[in-house]
Design brief:
Elements: H1 3-15, H2 35-51, H3 60-63, E1 67-69, H4 85-110, H5 116-144, E2 147-148, E3 162-163, H6 165-182, H7 201-218, H8 224-237, E4 247-249, H9 260-267, E5 273-275, H10 277-285, H11 291-294, E6 298-311, E7 314-319, E8 332-335, E9 338-346, E10 350-354, E11 365-370, E12 399-402, H12 404-416, H13 425-439, H14 444-451, H15 458-464, H16 470-482, H17 487-497, H18 520-525, H19 527-537
């Protein structure tokens, strides 16, 4: 059994050393650890892996171009081998999540509960474990392709065969349907041991239906008929309908139970990440009200003054070169550390300031406070680029693995594919955009103003798109913004919809990573099965597209 189980068991035994009967206990027997404890640990391990940004564990926030590295840029340039990231992802999901969930299920199944509340929640506990198991396997398939499934989790079988990814995925959807039907919403489940829903079975049922929706959408290009049936069935089962349904894992303000983002950005004392230019530039172009909710402003140079003119209360500062900084009306201008006032006008090579606090001299360098992202794949100074907001890096910020905004975007995709989900692509898109803004703390007024812009309005943006499938661009771009800080989900959406168009890194070691490569240890220890799987998917390469990624 894994070391963590041995250690936990050892602590339990040691605390009862005055009980002579405990000397006869087998401290390696996992049954001495309550199944509920294993469930809690597996749940945390799963969410930690999904939300992490440590370059040893999860590179997808870099690949989705939400963040950029400041100094060591290997991972931004698609290197997934040096730090053996695929091996970590594989190990966490199989060993620390799936195996623990499997053990939890066995223990709870075998436990003879005496309390009435435990007896009546037993069946629901097993179904919640089943749902999280399906979720973890779905991530593995979406990440690697063919993976061990039918022969996985058997500690006696160290050389498991790999199953076909599409076959596994469809089997998981079948299991999900069974779990949804088996949940009894009149009874509870894990209670306080569940750090996502507090044991609320009705919310777990909505989560399972929403997961089924997501998985169905992913199959749309490879098996449209199956996808349509899956999606429509999921909606009929009851997907998320409000923010209250969000799957948010509760983190605490003290280590070791803080959000992993906080551990990597704050507790580490390091300055390894800044905002990426790709997302900042798009949000600047769209005047996105989520910018201050995602990122902090930084000081950005406008240029050197050649002359100034004043007319009434307006002072014009003229620059020697055309302005290429992302200035906006309302930004604050600075001469060194002195605030000159608010920018009221912008032209090719000048800005206007009303009631300027002081008139700068010729050759003074003028700056403003705004949002700037690091160039993809290049070193990016921590001091001159935007950082994530205080909320994003806070210790107790919840770990989100599914939310209502994503469900509405999925429904928009479904409607665009003519699936019968109620509403139109536009109606679901509008709800999704507004929900994303409001859930991050923006106002409804901000959301409606944003949505009314021609570049955001669904119908106008659709008509202006030159993409082969315009709705993929319109929905894909906004869904990507809404999935900020959820790298794995965003990476999957990018691969499915092919939007947004990402920047090519400065020094890429491969093409865009369409998958994690298999762990090197699999090549060494499970070589024949690894070779068969590699051949089946078209080669164990980062560029290999998975079965669902056809376009």
């Amino acid at each position: 059994m894994k070391k963590i189980l041995i250690l936990i068991t050892a602590v339990i035994i040691a605390s009862c050393s005055d009980n002579l009967e405990s000397l006869n206990e087998n401290i390696k027997d996992p049954s001495s650890v309550p199944g509920e404890t294993l469930f809690t640990g597996a749940q945390k391990n799963l969410v930690d892996q999904m939300v992490d940004l440590n370059v040893n564990n999860n590179n997808t926030k870099l690949w989705a171009q939400y963040l950029q590295e400041t100094t060591y840029t290997d991972e931004s340039n698609y290197d997934q081998v040096t730090r053996t990231i695929p091996a970590t992802h594989w190990s966490v999901l199989y060993k620390d999540v799936l195996k623990d969930l499997d053990e939890a299920s066995k223990i709870i199944t075998d436990t003879k509960y005496s309390l009435p509340e435990d007896i009546e929640t037993k069946a629901n506990k097993l179904q919640v474990i089943e749902i999280l198991t399906i979720y973890a396997y779905s991530v593995l398939v979406e990440t690697f392709g063919n993976v061990p499934y039918t022969e996985a989790l058997d500690i006696e079988d160290l050389l498991p065969a790999y199953d076909d990814g599409e076959t596994v995925y469809k089997a998981l959807i079948g299991r999900l349907t069974t779990a949804i039907d088996a949940l009894d919403t009149s009874k509870g489940s894990f209670g306080a041991a569940d750090n996502i829903y507090g044991g609320d079975v009705s919310l777990w049922k909505k989560f399972a239906a929403s997961l089924k929706l997501r998985m169905g959408i992913l199959l749309s290009d490879v098996d449209n008929a199956f996808a349509k049936t899956t999606v429509e069935s999921a909606v009929a089962s009851g997907v998320f309908t409000s923010r209250a349904d969000n799957a948010n894992f509760t983190y605490l303000s003290a280590a070791p139970n803080t959000n992993p983002v906080h551990a990597n950005l704050v507790l580490s004392g390091r300055a390894d990440f800044v905002a990426a230019a790709t997302i900042v530039d798009m949000m600047n172009t769209l005047n996105d009200p989520r910018r201050p909710l995602f990122f902090e402003k930084t000081t950005i140079t406008i240029g050197t003054i050649t002359s100034t003119t004043t007319a009434g209360t307006t002072t014009t500062l003229n620059f020697e070169d055309p302005i290429d900084a992302p200035i906006e009306i309302g930004d604050e201008a600075f001469n060194g550390s002195v605030s000159l006032g608010t920018i009221s006008g912008i032209s090719v090579s000048s800005i206007d300031i009303e009631n300027i606090s002081e008139t700068p001299e010729v050759d003074n360098a003028i700056s403003f406070s705004g949002y700037k992202g690091g160039t993809i794949g290049s070193t990016s100074s921590f001091s001159t680029h935007s950082h994530v907001s205080d909320y994003v890096e806070a210790a107790a910020t919840p770990g989100v693995i599914f939310d209502y905004a994503e469900v509405e975007f999925l429904l928009a995709e479904a409607a665009a594919r003519t699936f019968a989900v109620g509403g139109t692509a536009k109606s679901h898109y509008d709800i999704a955009v507004v929900e994303s803004i409001e859930s991050w703390g923006g106002s409804n007024a901000d959301a409606m103003t944003y949505l009314a812009q021609p570049t955001v309005d669904y119908d106008t943006a659709l008509a202006a798109s030159t993409a082969t499938t315009p709705w993929k661009e319109v929905i894909g771009n906004q869904k990507w913004i809404a999935l900020f800080n959820r790298g794995i989900e965003a990476w999957t959406s990018i691969r499915l919809l092919d939007f947004p168009i990402l920047a090519t890194p400065a020094e890429p070691v491969s093409g865009f990573p369409n998958r994690y490569t298999y762990p090197i240890i699999e090549q060494t220890l499970n070589g024949s099965n690894w070779q068969a799987a590699s051949t089946a998917i078209g080669g164990d390469l980062p560029e290999t597209k998975l079965f669902w990624d056809l376009n």
